[in-house]
Design brief:
alpha+beta; 23% strand; L,D-transpeptidase catalytic domain-like; 6 helices; disordered N terminus; single chain; six-stranded mixed β-sheet; 270 residues
Length: 270
Amino acid sequence: MTPTKSIYRLLGIGFIAQLLLSSCSTTPPPPATQPQELSSATEHVAKGGSAGTLYMCYKPNSYKHYVAYGTYPKTMRVYRNEALLKKSTGKSPIYIDLSQQRGRLYVGKEVAMDWPVSTGVSGKETPVGHFRISQKKANHRSNMYGKTYSADGKIIDYNASSKDPLAEGASFVGAPMPFWQRMTGCGIGMHIGRVRVGRRLSHGCIRTPSAVAKELFKTTKSNTTYVTVVNKTEAPYPAKEVLELKAKAKAMAMAKKAKEQANAAAAKRP
Protein backbone atom coordinates (compact mmCIF):
# COMPACT_ATOMS: atom_id res chain seq x y z
CA MET A 1 0.00 0.00 0.00
CA THR A 2 1.41 3.36 -0.96
CA PRO A 3 1.89 6.13 1.64
CA THR A 4 -0.78 8.26 -0.06
CA LYS A 5 -3.40 5.48 0.15
CA SER A 6 -2.57 4.92 3.85
CA ILE A 7 -3.20 8.59 4.64
CA TYR A 8 -6.60 8.61 2.85
CA ARG A 9 -7.55 5.41 4.68
CA LEU A 10 -6.73 6.92 8.08
CA LEU A 11 -8.67 10.08 7.25
CA GLY A 12 -11.67 8.02 6.20
CA ILE A 13 -11.66 6.00 9.44
CA GLY A 14 -11.43 9.19 11.50
CA PHE A 15 -14.37 10.80 9.66
CA ILE A 16 -16.56 7.70 10.17
CA ALA A 17 -15.68 7.62 13.89
CA GLN A 18 -16.66 11.27 14.25
CA LEU A 19 -20.03 10.60 12.62
CA LEU A 20 -20.70 7.66 14.94
CA LEU A 21 -19.85 9.71 18.03
CA SER A 22 -22.07 12.63 16.99
CA SER A 23 -25.00 10.29 16.31
CA CYS A 24 -24.70 8.83 19.83
CA SER A 25 -24.82 12.27 21.48
CA THR A 26 -28.00 12.91 23.51
CA THR A 27 -27.70 16.71 23.34
CA PRO A 28 -28.68 18.22 19.96
CA PRO A 29 -26.51 21.04 18.67
CA PRO A 30 -27.86 24.55 19.36
CA PRO A 31 -29.59 26.37 16.50
CA ALA A 32 -27.55 28.87 14.57
CA THR A 33 -29.64 31.78 15.93
CA GLN A 34 -31.52 31.83 19.23
CA PRO A 35 -34.86 33.73 19.26
CA GLN A 36 -34.64 36.76 21.50
CA GLU A 37 -37.28 36.60 24.22
CA LEU A 38 -38.40 39.49 26.37
CA SER A 39 -38.01 38.74 30.03
CA SER A 40 -40.32 41.58 31.03
CA ALA A 41 -42.33 44.52 29.80
CA THR A 42 -39.78 46.83 31.39
CA GLU A 43 -37.03 45.28 29.30
CA HIS A 44 -39.21 45.60 26.21
CA VAL A 45 -39.52 49.35 26.67
CA ALA A 46 -35.87 49.77 27.69
CA LYS A 47 -34.83 48.12 24.41
CA GLY A 48 -36.94 50.55 22.41
CA GLY A 49 -39.96 48.30 21.97
CA SER A 50 -43.11 50.04 20.80
CA ALA A 51 -46.23 50.68 22.87
CA GLY A 52 -48.16 48.80 20.20
CA THR A 53 -46.43 45.51 20.95
CA LEU A 54 -46.25 45.87 24.73
CA TYR A 55 -49.25 43.55 25.18
CA MET A 56 -47.09 40.63 23.99
CA CYS A 57 -45.20 40.81 27.28
CA TYR A 58 -48.28 39.80 29.29
CA LYS A 59 -50.25 36.61 29.60
CA PRO A 60 -53.00 36.40 26.93
CA ASN A 61 -56.50 37.19 28.22
CA SER A 62 -55.12 38.64 31.45
CA TYR A 63 -56.19 42.10 32.59
CA LYS A 64 -52.72 43.56 32.02
CA HIS A 65 -52.73 42.10 28.50
CA TYR A 66 -56.06 43.88 27.90
CA VAL A 67 -54.76 47.21 29.23
CA ALA A 68 -51.52 46.97 27.24
CA TYR A 69 -53.34 46.23 23.99
CA GLY A 70 -54.39 48.96 21.56
CA THR A 71 -55.53 52.43 22.63
CA TYR A 72 -56.76 51.64 26.15
CA PRO A 73 -58.23 53.50 28.03
CA LYS A 74 -59.67 55.18 24.93
CA THR A 75 -61.47 52.13 23.62
CA MET A 76 -65.01 50.79 23.53
CA ARG A 77 -63.73 47.30 24.25
CA VAL A 78 -65.10 45.77 27.46
CA TYR A 79 -62.95 43.49 29.62
CA ARG A 80 -64.73 40.55 31.23
CA ASN A 81 -63.22 37.91 33.49
CA GLU A 82 -66.01 35.34 33.50
CA ALA A 83 -64.57 33.36 36.42
CA LEU A 84 -64.45 36.48 38.59
CA LEU A 85 -67.88 37.70 37.46
CA LYS A 86 -69.39 34.46 38.75
CA LYS A 87 -67.91 35.31 42.16
CA SER A 88 -69.15 38.92 42.20
CA THR A 89 -71.77 39.87 44.79
CA GLY A 90 -73.62 42.94 45.97
CA LYS A 91 -70.58 43.75 48.08
CA SER A 92 -68.22 43.86 45.08
CA PRO A 93 -67.09 47.50 44.77
CA ILE A 94 -67.43 49.61 41.63
CA TYR A 95 -65.02 52.41 40.72
CA ILE A 96 -65.63 55.16 38.17
CA ASP A 97 -62.41 56.81 36.97
CA LEU A 98 -63.27 60.27 35.60
CA SER A 99 -59.77 60.83 34.23
CA GLN A 100 -59.97 57.69 32.08
CA GLN A 101 -63.76 57.69 31.59
CA ARG A 102 -63.75 54.02 32.61
CA GLY A 103 -65.75 51.97 35.07
CA ARG A 104 -64.42 48.90 36.90
CA LEU A 105 -66.00 46.14 38.97
CA TYR A 106 -63.69 44.45 41.46
CA VAL A 107 -63.75 41.05 43.09
CA GLY A 108 -61.20 41.20 45.86
CA LYS A 109 -58.19 43.02 44.43
CA GLU A 110 -58.81 41.85 40.86
CA VAL A 111 -60.74 43.57 38.07
CA ALA A 112 -63.71 41.45 37.01
CA MET A 113 -65.00 43.91 34.40
CA ASP A 114 -63.73 47.15 32.83
CA TRP A 115 -65.88 49.28 30.52
CA PRO A 116 -66.14 52.78 28.96
CA VAL A 117 -68.42 55.40 30.49
CA SER A 118 -69.50 58.93 29.67
CA THR A 119 -69.94 61.15 32.73
CA GLY A 120 -71.04 64.74 33.35
CA VAL A 121 -70.02 67.61 31.08
CA SER A 122 -68.31 70.78 32.32
CA GLY A 123 -70.64 72.63 34.67
CA LYS A 124 -72.61 69.46 35.38
CA GLU A 125 -69.76 67.22 36.48
CA THR A 126 -70.37 63.84 38.05
CA PRO A 127 -69.66 64.31 41.76
CA VAL A 128 -66.58 62.69 43.26
CA GLY A 129 -67.11 60.55 46.33
CA HIS A 130 -68.23 57.28 47.88
CA PHE A 131 -71.88 56.50 47.10
CA ARG A 132 -74.19 53.64 47.99
CA ILE A 133 -76.78 52.47 45.47
CA SER A 134 -80.12 53.33 47.04
CA GLN A 135 -82.61 52.51 44.28
CA LYS A 136 -82.78 50.21 41.24
CA LYS A 137 -85.36 50.50 38.48
CA ALA A 138 -85.21 48.70 35.14
CA ASN A 139 -87.59 51.15 33.43
CA HIS A 140 -86.91 54.67 34.65
CA ARG A 141 -87.29 58.16 33.26
CA SER A 142 -85.58 61.32 34.39
CA ASN A 143 -87.71 63.84 36.25
CA MET A 144 -85.18 66.57 35.46
CA TYR A 145 -84.08 66.28 31.81
CA GLY A 146 -85.84 65.19 28.64
CA LYS A 147 -87.84 66.62 25.74
CA THR A 148 -90.77 69.01 25.45
CA TYR A 149 -93.58 68.37 22.99
CA SER A 150 -96.14 70.71 21.51
CA ALA A 151 -99.87 70.03 21.79
CA ASP A 152 -99.80 68.27 18.40
CA GLY A 153 -96.94 65.98 19.43
CA LYS A 154 -94.01 67.73 17.74
CA ILE A 155 -90.70 68.05 19.61
CA ILE A 156 -90.04 71.61 20.73
CA ASP A 157 -86.81 71.05 22.67
CA TYR A 158 -84.56 67.97 22.51
CA ASN A 159 -82.58 69.00 25.61
CA ALA A 160 -85.23 70.38 27.92
CA SER A 161 -85.36 70.73 31.68
CA SER A 162 -88.44 70.02 33.74
CA LYS A 163 -87.94 73.50 35.22
CA ASP A 164 -88.35 75.21 31.84
CA PRO A 165 -91.66 77.08 31.38
CA LEU A 166 -94.09 75.30 29.06
CA ALA A 167 -96.17 76.87 26.33
CA GLU A 168 -99.92 76.28 26.40
CA GLY A 169 -100.65 72.65 25.58
CA ALA A 170 -96.96 71.63 25.67
CA SER A 171 -95.70 68.75 27.78
CA PHE A 172 -92.42 67.54 29.24
CA VAL A 173 -91.33 63.88 28.87
CA GLY A 174 -88.33 62.72 30.89
CA ALA A 175 -85.40 61.06 29.14
CA PRO A 176 -85.36 57.25 29.37
CA MET A 177 -82.75 55.87 31.79
CA PRO A 178 -83.01 52.06 31.50
CA PHE A 179 -81.51 49.92 34.28
CA TRP A 180 -81.29 52.94 36.55
CA GLN A 181 -79.22 52.70 39.75
CA ARG A 182 -79.52 55.75 41.98
CA MET A 183 -76.42 57.00 43.79
CA THR A 184 -77.54 60.37 45.19
CA GLY A 185 -80.74 62.05 46.30
CA CYS A 186 -80.35 64.75 43.63
CA GLY A 187 -80.71 62.43 40.64
CA ILE A 188 -77.20 61.11 39.97
CA GLY A 189 -76.90 57.46 39.07
CA MET A 190 -75.78 54.84 36.55
CA HIS A 191 -77.91 53.82 33.57
CA ILE A 192 -77.84 52.77 29.92
CA GLY A 193 -76.94 55.72 27.73
CA ARG A 194 -74.95 56.90 24.74
CA VAL A 195 -71.23 56.47 25.40
CA ARG A 196 -68.37 57.95 23.39
CA VAL A 197 -64.73 57.01 24.01
CA GLY A 198 -63.14 59.38 26.51
CA ARG A 199 -65.97 61.94 26.24
CA ARG A 200 -68.16 63.47 28.94
CA LEU A 201 -71.71 63.73 27.64
CA SER A 202 -74.23 63.58 30.48
CA HIS A 203 -75.91 65.99 32.89
CA GLY A 204 -74.03 64.28 35.72
CA CYS A 205 -75.09 60.65 35.50
CA ILE A 206 -72.77 57.79 34.57
CA ARG A 207 -73.78 56.54 31.14
CA THR A 208 -72.94 52.89 30.58
CA PRO A 209 -73.11 50.55 27.55
CA SER A 210 -76.26 48.44 27.45
CA ALA A 211 -74.73 44.99 28.05
CA VAL A 212 -72.62 46.27 30.95
CA ALA A 213 -75.51 48.12 32.59
CA LYS A 214 -77.62 44.96 32.51
CA GLU A 215 -74.75 42.89 33.97
CA LEU A 216 -74.24 45.37 36.80
CA PHE A 217 -77.97 45.53 37.46
CA LYS A 218 -77.96 41.78 38.15
CA THR A 219 -74.93 42.02 40.44
CA THR A 220 -75.56 45.09 42.58
CA LYS A 221 -77.89 45.35 45.57
CA SER A 222 -79.70 48.38 46.93
CA ASN A 223 -78.22 49.75 50.17
CA THR A 224 -75.29 47.34 49.82
CA THR A 225 -73.21 48.10 46.71
CA TYR A 226 -70.87 51.09 46.82
CA VAL A 227 -69.77 53.12 43.82
CA THR A 228 -66.63 55.21 44.28
CA VAL A 229 -66.11 58.07 41.82
CA VAL A 230 -62.51 59.31 41.59
CA ASN A 231 -60.67 62.02 39.65
CA LYS A 232 -57.65 59.80 39.11
CA THR A 233 -57.02 56.08 38.93
CA GLU A 234 -58.18 54.31 42.08
CA ALA A 235 -55.69 53.02 44.65
CA PRO A 236 -56.33 49.28 44.10
CA TYR A 237 -55.89 49.53 40.31
CA PRO A 238 -53.61 46.59 39.36
CA ALA A 239 -52.33 47.84 35.99
CA LYS A 240 -50.72 51.20 36.77
CA GLU A 241 -47.31 49.93 35.66
CA VAL A 242 -48.75 48.98 32.28
CA LEU A 243 -50.09 52.48 31.65
CA GLU A 244 -46.79 53.99 32.79
CA LEU A 245 -44.82 51.75 30.43
CA LYS A 246 -47.16 52.54 27.53
CA ALA A 247 -46.67 56.25 28.15
CA LYS A 248 -42.91 55.83 28.40
CA ALA A 249 -42.74 53.80 25.17
CA LYS A 250 -44.77 56.44 23.33
CA ALA A 251 -42.58 59.24 24.69
CA MET A 252 -39.42 57.42 23.64
CA ALA A 253 -40.82 56.82 20.15
CA MET A 254 -41.74 60.49 19.78
CA ALA A 255 -38.29 61.59 20.96
CA LYS A 256 -36.64 59.20 18.50
CA LYS A 257 -38.78 60.49 15.64
CA ALA A 258 -38.05 64.12 16.54
CA LYS A 259 -34.32 63.38 16.62
CA GLU A 260 -34.47 61.65 13.23
CA GLN A 261 -36.35 64.60 11.73
CA ALA A 262 -33.84 67.06 13.20
CA ASN A 263 -30.91 65.04 11.79
CA ALA A 264 -32.60 64.84 8.39
CA ALA A 265 -33.16 68.59 8.36
CA ALA A 266 -29.56 69.23 9.39
CA ALA A 267 -28.30 66.97 6.60
CA LYS A 268 -30.18 69.05 4.01
CA ARG A 269 -28.58 72.30 5.11
CA PRO A 270 -25.70 73.51 2.89
